[in-house]
Amino acid sequence: MFRVNGVDIAARVQGSGPPLLLLHGHPQTHVIWHRVWPALTRRHTCVAADLRGYGDSGKPPASADHSAHSKREMARDMAELMTALGFDTFDVLAHDRGARVAHRLALDHARRVARLMLLDIAPTLDMYEGTTRAFAQAYYHWFWLTQPAPLPETMIGRDPAFYARSVMGGRPGGLALFAPRALAEYERCAGLPGWATGICEDYRASATIDLEHDRAGRLAGERLRQPLRVFWGERGAVGRNFDVLGLWRAVADDVSGRALPGAHYLAEEVPEQVLEEAAALFH
């Protein structure tokens, strides 16, 4: 556990070589990397962190403007974590919510992030502004979790493990994709005090203050300058509903990527392909 930016951040650190920060998505933890971890740690010093509000990391109370769970604050957590570990510059491999944090991290701390590999997201602002009925039905939780407290928190709190299973199991492949020990860990963390507030505030921030930061940044000419590789699931909702490469090329200078033969949880569904692409980028 590391105390950074006023919050406790749980992180697993292992391996040797250039530093690689790994960030997970919703409703999971750093455990998502378990199928790629052995290979990655042979080539890198890997730092797999739980985002604030998730896993065993600290769960700050909600703030009126949701700034305590903004991607800017989450990115600052990770920048300070890497500083505490003695890494000035580093690469980032991130999925889902963690990839949104990584996007902001690479903008706000551009000198420190060398290269980025993002899994199954398009830029948050474009996804909200381009929402269709099909996307809203596939990603209903984007809109339900943003409802005013305590509605979603109360409903999730009645059976948080059921909520976590329903989100993960509702995608192509179902719960059979997940290793039993990993699934048990996601369920354990879903039951921790403050988890429901943390995940709701994460999404409320993305629908409010994060969009303000993104719009202001674009008006100021903010762009990703680092090499960026993006991948999405060929059976997932992101690729079906958005021009992933086109949207990233509008906000970044050096972008490439493609669909992988999975849906959403790519590091657990198609770990061999994720490792192959990571080796090509983080050489």
TrEMBL record:
InterPro entries: AB_hydrolase_1 (IPR000073), AB_hydrolase_fold (IPR029058). Its EC number is 3.8.1.3. Pfam families: Abhydrolase_1. Residues 18-166 form the AB hydrolase-1 domain. Gene3D superfamilies: alpha/beta hydrolase. It comes from the Bacteria. Keywords: Hydrolase. One of its GO terms (molecular function) is haloacetate dehalogenase activity. This is Probable epoxide hydrolase. It comes from Bordetella petrii (strain ATCC BAA-461 / DSM 12804 / CCUG 43448 / CIP 107267 / Se-1111R). The lineage of its organism: Bacteria, Pseudomonadati, Pseudomonadota, Betaproteobacteria, Burkholderiales.
